[in-house]
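tmp note - AraC family transcriptional regulator
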Amino acid sequence: MFDSLSPSLRADPSAAPLQVAVLRAELAALIERLSGGRDGAHVTAIPRLRLARLSQAQQPSHTVHEPAFCVLAQGSKRVLLGEETYLYDSSQFLVVSQNLPVSSQVTDLSPEAPYLGLRLDFDVKEIAALALELGLAHGPAHRAAQRGLFTGELGSALLDPVLRLVRLLDAPDDIPTLAPLVSREILYRLLRSPDGWRLAQMATADGHGQRIAQAIAWLTQRYQAPLRVEELADAVHMSVSSLHHHFKTVTAMSPLQFQKRLRLQEARRILLCEHVDAATAGHRVGYESQSQFNREYSRFFGSPPARDARRLREQQLGRQGR
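out:
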């Protein structure tokens, strides 16, 4: 792939920090311009690529994060998975290799220096094909499953194709031909990184990572129903003990805790978007006890369902009024 760094920078290893700083500054400027200086998530003409800008502090967001590669050009972010906290900034990247219920919050931003980042969603079939081509479908990719979320150093070898991908937004005629090539290069760099096998494991046939991915999909489709762990283990061809061990290794949660997060996050979405009462929202996500729903919702989101939904709507109206 074309290398955008000047020959002088490439020739001097001591210039590596300068290379990264130059690339990062250009990426930040591009995201700021392409976002039009407007806060929010911005869909782009490149499939699966989104840009993000934020200049005002916000409450933590709670979502099921799909497999993706995330880069910050400016600012920093805190991501919570289960009881674990991951911090990353413009010197690191974040990879989410499974569908995981996470909480996140931008921790370093201001109107003068807004948070600027991007997210490139993964295609599991592309990961599997490239992992097979690179020989990662055997050996390291078959290690015991690890966390489905990890961070790594964002050096020039990875930052350079990221920048070239974003530059393509200024050349729309080139996107259909070049964007898939640059995206593939980014995926290649990630798979070749020290923790790249953790990304490959989710797409490796019959590996623990893929079976946990199947368990996550099973739970996601049936989160409203009572959880029978034996049925889940049978569905993904694992013993109950093996399922518990590997599921918690990947997600930092037990299957029951995972299901609870899915239920609470969906209940919050229903309350906010459909304007139903708390009893209806709780029932629709599978809670039979209203008091249990209120108690678990308050513990997770910090306030009772109705009050939390009212606060979120007021925040939305405030942002729309700015």
